[in-house]
Amino acid sequence: MGENGEAVEQPMQSAETLANLQKFLTLLNSSLNLNEMLTNVARQLVEMFEVEHSGVLFFGEQDVEGRVIAEYPNQGAVALKVPLTDYPLMECLKVERKPMAVLDAQNDPAMGSARPTMRALGIKSIVIIPLVVQDKLVGSLSLDAIREIRTFTEAELELCYIIGNQIAVAVDYTRALEAAESSRRQAQTLHEVNRVLGESLDPDEILSLILEQLHKVISADGSSIHLLVEGGVQLVAHRGAYSTYRLRQVIPLDELWGAREIIKHKKPLLLSHTREHDQWKINPGSPIKSWMGLPLSVRGEIAGILNIDGYSPHQFNEDHIQLAQAFASQAAIAIHNARLYRQAEKRAELLTSVQEIGLGIAISLDLKEVLRAVADAVLTLLEANQVRIYLYEAQTDTFTLATTLDGADPVEIKGVQPRRDGLTATVARSGRYVAVPNVSEHPLYQNEDAAHGFKAIIGAPLKKGDEVLGVLNVFYDQPHYFTSDELDLLHLLATQAAVALENARLYELEVKQVEQELNIARRIQQGFFPEEIPQLPGWEIAAVCLPARETGGDFYEFVEREDGALGLVVGDVSGKSIQAAMLMAAAQSLVSAKGSDHRSPARVITETNRLLYKDVPEGAFVAVSYALLSAGSPLVSLSNGGQLAPLLVPAGSEPIRLIETPGDHLPLGMIADTVYEELSFVLAAGDLLVFYTDGLVERMDAARQLFGFERLITTPEHLRGQSAEAALQALLQAADVFANGVGPADDVTLVVVRRIDEFESND
Length: 763
Hints:
Layout: E1 8-9, H1 14-28, H2 34-49, E2 53-58, E3 65-72, E4 81-83, H3 88-96, E5 100-102, H4 115-121, E6 125-133, E7 136-145, E8 150-151, H5 154-198, H6 203-217, E9 222-229, E10 232-240, E11 250-251, H7 257-265, E12 269-271, E13 290-298, E14 301-310, H8 318-363, H9 367-381, E15 386-393, E16 398-405, H10 423-430, E17 434-436, E18 456-464, E19 467-476, H11 484-510, H12 514-528, E20 539-546, E21 554-560, E22 566-573, H13 578-597, H14 601-612, E23 622-629, E24 635-641, E25 647-649, E26 657-658, E27 678-682, E28 688-692, H15 694-697, H16 708-714, H17 724-739, E29 748-755
Parallel strand pairs: 1-8
Antiparallel strand pairs: 2-3, 2-7, 3-4, 5-6, 6-7, 9-10, 9-14, 10-11, 12-13, 13-14, 15-16, 15-19, 17-18, 18-19, 20-29, 21-22, 22-23, 23-24, 24-27, 25-26, 25-28, 28-29
Helix pairs in contact: 1-2, 1-5, 2-5, 5-6, 5-8, 6-8, 8-9, 8-11, 9-11, 12-13, 13-14
């Protein structure tokens, strides 16, 4: 202040001004971080104009408030929101687009609603410099005199104008760089989100994961997922402190304006301020003031809505919508994949049921029992009202009604022979399925009596190759449009029925020819033995199965898994007949299938037992040992279901011993819910692991003495370090020498595994 209390004018010297401007321009080019750059700008302005404070305010031309994003020195004003309404100076700034000075910032009416802020910060005089980019006002820069009232000269204001333009360009450039970096980070985040969502296929888990990942992408206070269901949408997942609806509650679309609009237009919806929107339903106590809704759609089909809630007005903008839409697209695909997986699981469960039914059908050779089992399975799984099975003789073009089921009880059918031009005859002669979803609209049923009161019928051929053995008819008392899943299921059951029917017919025709039966069974078994022993790095394997009769109960199998591991199966089925051979084939197929599904030997044995249990005849059983070997690894995992414990023959001087697994050792087929355990151990290079069946230890000589476990354990002493094949032949020879010409009374199976050094060849 001057001596008379007038404001002191402090013009800047030209040389000093140019030097400061050059320094200022250098400063603008030195930083790419917006906040850091603007803080340095504010500091430089304070020094250049000898004021006490400088601040930067960002806002859009239509915004009702701006936000302080940088200041110098720090007075705690960063993030402070400054009202822009009732602010005449700001309105003038938008029009004039040039720096404006106010001598008395705390009282001048031009400051309007900003005067309280000026008083709070102690600002006495101020210059506000507009930041204009491509003719758009994006913010302002202030020079604040705090100690005393300050008058700014025209030269200073002109310099401010130049500086403002330079700053605006730098801000625009830096914002563009930050936007590009933000886009890169968003893309990286969305990539990570996609990876996380891709790791789960559980529908319930994926919904929670979606909302968890959403909050990493967008700063929201709450979120939820509604899926389309009959009658509206259902709340299936929620995150946040507030929810209007209960989880799993179905909400009619009439109650949800936002969801209804999104489904109708298939586009995202943004409400910056829900309280100002006349269609938004405000629930008592709801803190939601900002909201985004996005369609969850795959290939144009909307499956649901993703809701994103903010508890502050104007919390979301169009940039958020774009990011959220990208996220919603990923979320929709994750939900779609999880649903497909759930459907596949259900289909797998259904196929397992079919598999169990098929095992029962395949093992039984009683024709009436087989056909009734097929009819019962079709009636149950297809939820039909009646099932009929006709046997067909192609040479005479005649039919025999073999069985019919209506609910739980057989039904008498008056017409034994089907119509000559009806559905059954059409299926038999063509060998093709015929589906009639509505008999009243189908030419095969112009005569209403022909349908016997049923409204929908499908006929399936029971075929062996191209030969039709019979026809399976399924009836419904209401029109029924057959799905692809139902058709697939019927095809599976019809195929199994045809195979079982053929087996049963063969059995009935050849029941008196026992030796021929045994030869048939032998051929069945031989078809299931491995043609060659797989090669596995780090392992050497030799195997042999010597049946005591034309057909045996022993078997071995190898399961080549997709992960490179090899499952080794050694089994023994009680009995010596076609039925036993078929049980063996069923057991062998099951353990191979489960070995492909699971790495754990214990789970393979447990699952095989569960599936096999109902189909093992009373008094019969299946003993199975299952080991898992991995390429290049010395680790062996073993589970035992009633089979003899394998023999470990170390290459060194350690004692030979039996490998006993923990838990139950019951043979398969005795108790349905038996849970088997497993043991893992390591083989050193040269170690032998010998699997054998009871036919070896029960080999007898003429005096009926057993070869026994004691000889089995002592025999391999001289086999340490030998190849797997040499050890196998030596054990067989030792048993032959002991028996001294007496043939084996039971099958003998030997599988010898040798761990080899990684540099040792398998050849």
